[in-house]
Structure prediction request, 1005 residues.
Amino acid sequence: MQKLKILTAIATMVVASPALAQEITVWDVNVDDAAHATYYDHAKAAFEAAHPGATLNLLSQPDAEYYTLLGTALASKAGPDVIWANGGAQAKALVGGLIPLDDKLPDLIPKLVGKSAFTGPDGKLYFIPTTLQGHVVYYNKALYKAAGLDPEKPPTSWAELTKVCDAFKAQGKPACFMMANKEGYNAEFFLSEAANQSLTTQQQADWLAGKLHWSDPPIKAILQAWVDTAKNGWYQEGGNSQTMFMDEFALFEQGVGANVMGLLSNVAHWKQFETNMGVEKVGVYPMPSPTVAADQHEGAPGVPLDGGVGYGVNKDSANIDLAVDAVRILASPEVLSYLVNDTGSVPANTEVNTSGIDSPGLKQIMGWLATRAVPTTHANSSAAELDEWHHQSQLLFNGEATVDQAAAALDKVQAEAKPQ
Amino acid sequence: MTANSLHQTGQAARTRTRPGRSRRAEARVAVLFLLPAILLVLVFRIFPLFWGFGISLTSATSTDPGQFIGAGNYLRALDDPNFRSAMANAVVVLLSVPIFVTIPMLLAILIHQGVPGRTFFRSVYFFPAILSSVIIGSIFSVVLSFNGNLNALLSIAGISGVDWLGHSATALPVTLAIQCWSTFGMGVLIFLAGLSTVSKEMVEAARLDGAKMWQIWWHVIIPELRPIIEFSTVITTIGLLTSMFGLIYVLTGGGPGTATTVPEYLIWAAQGKLNRPAYAAAVSMVLFFMTSILAWLQIRILSRNANI
Amino acid sequence: MSGAGKRQRLTLRIAAIPMGLLALSCLYPIFFAVNNALKTRHDYMLDRFGLAMQPTLDNFVQAWTRAHLDEYFLNSVIATLGAVILLMVVSSMAGFALASLRFPYRRFLFAVILSSLMIPVQVVLVPFMRTMLALNLVNTHIGLILSYTAFFLPFSVYMMTAFYSGLPRELIEAARIDGASLLQVWWHVMLPLGTPALVTLAILNTLSCWNDILISLLVMQKHRTLMVGISALKGQYSDQIPLFTAGIVIAAAPIVVLYILFQRRIVSGIAVGAVKG
Prediction:
């Protein structure tokens, strides 16, 4: 009798425990960053208010080990319910372990931009983007003035840009552009920025599909521009060993270089530069392309733009519906507005209210995003291609490889990663 | 000498004590003494290794167990220029092993011989090893940058600047030098422990006989240290091939090009950002065999008479 | 004293100069870390080598509270202490057996342990994780202790074997003729004689366990360790270096103190070794 009681008690506990332990775990790398604190606190509060008894466990993971950890955990069926990822190659590599969200969040999805970075090969959306990633050039107006350039007229074509850099070169210092390619990031940004007008819409689509090759003329022209700009002294010395985050941007703020290829995400953007340098000293322009494709207009360069980071749901989650709702809350306009206000990120949800932010830089950027957004070429490359482009861009920068050699090496990697 | 004494122990054990029963008893005790170590290693290291070998024969990704593809990943490695340069870099790394062993040994002997300030040195040499490679990296990435402190110093001497970590020719040697600086303290510790087995009387007797310092080192101390030298060589080799990731990640990110991409870094990239865990497993297996053969060779060469 | 002795003292004095410079270079990172932990993010970016002109403890407070370092600290202490003690006992026993006893398959068993030293951690990530899951050891302190012990054991066994094979045989033989059992020989002779190596191992293993990130990340998502908490402070773009550095200073402080305390044990350990000869 006694035994039976105990057994019943245990059985009740076992049956009851899943209901008691309704916890949704989110893996992310920014949770412990002070600038992001309000956003995560509000997400947690909103989730727990909507689901009494359930908790949202937001865990910050170390950046260097994040994808190693995530891969191991997913392969061992021990991953979190909700997964954070960078858009592009990283997110696309994970789609096999996630559920498609198209049917789960039908109200939210039409309001989003930057979806292509999170779309699987089947055309379905596997992550909900929260913020966008894009690339523009920030410049130091005081240095433009000192070099005899008009600080209110940033370059709009490659020829004008070349003139700007010639002016700085004639002075000797500062450098025209900051360069930080230790991790290969600057080469990634350069690829997207230079491609924004030099590829036709069709060519951008071909690139995504792997039909446009690195050795094809439009891409090879970009590799050549990379080599030429380095040879013509556009960058400060030592760009191959320069760390991008945040050393390069700190040097830009200190006036070591007049222009920098910056971001639209949570750092190295208008907000950081306006805060640290003063609003009046910072200007922004979309980078012109070395060549202009037939279907583009000279003098109106685009802004490479795609989903920056987003959240997906693990298909092995024990609580898929709750996990989906956690994603919905993390990406909801109300909660996201805290992230936008605190970090200056550009939201992927068009309903987020950004009118409270008073920044001339952001106003300009938002205008371009509405009219001149183009695909982010590097986000549409495979992870293997980007890795190889990191290597080859450094060799090209040092003159240790020729454009033809680099293009051939990249073609080989592309053929393997995106077989036709 | 140590190797011989090892050999003699066994003989002594056999001749001096009653044979037969005692030998069986000794074997039984030995098994008991070894059992915990063997069990832990089998369950948590060897068993996963065989499993990992199995994965290296598949096309698995993090979200898909994949299919059996035989030696596919190994053949792919042979055709991968990054793998080939990682192997070439590994050879350069291996050439530096004698430096990584000799410097701590010399420093430890000097400390043991009573160099002035030895207590201070012993305490301080270990400090770089305690701190994260991120901190070491944030110091050196600025010191070594083109506009950094080292080039400023060299320009005083009229030497023009070099982008130390940005050029293929200098990046790996410079990274190795920083690795050496940040880990030599551990080597000093190991050698100091080994030096405690060196007889002070023998050193003193040699000194009274009028032996010069280098003669004492060469004929008395270093032969006595042989098991520790062998240990240190093997450990250093393995350490250089399997734990330089942290420093490379913060200093060069494997570049420029593939100049500092060692096998370990390649494995990290394949496992994480490229989402090719099966390929990472295959490269890991190659690295495993490489280090095993190296360790075996080193042990053979360094202790020709050893029982082990 | 002969001329040789004088020459030796002179040589040692000369050697002290480069050794002193090297020692100063080793002190610098500690200064660098403490100094930068006292700066704001912006001050660090402006000049990472300059003195913190307006020192702030804000980074320490943030690291301690926001990242739950108080809770993680305890987890690190439990895992490190447990693993280091286990490592010392297990490796001293195994080292004694391998170096001083005769038994069949000795070389083979040594090779098995040694070879596991060469296993790159990445090849076993998924199998290791699944083994831990199958044994129900994930998110348990004992799981992390066993993992650390297993990962750092080959190194420790190898070092103890090398150390014990450098010891004079006469001591063990003498003890055995006295009729002591092997267990007594291990406890009364080998453990005390092994002090210098065991102390060294304790220091190196403490450092390995304390600073580990990857194993702990896999095994302990619920009760995290200190270094995992600190590494997660940096965020994706690593612009939180002063905050991260404050975390590192918090983490390194006990290690530095322990190390300086243990230093004396190494000195006395050397004295124990002098019995020989």
Observations:
- The interface with chain A takes residues 60-65, 81-82, 141-142, 144-147, 161, 163-168, 171, 249, 252-253, 255-258, 268-269, 271-275, 277 of chain B (CB under 8 Å).
- Chain B has 16 helices and no strands.
- Chain B has a mean pLDDT of 87.
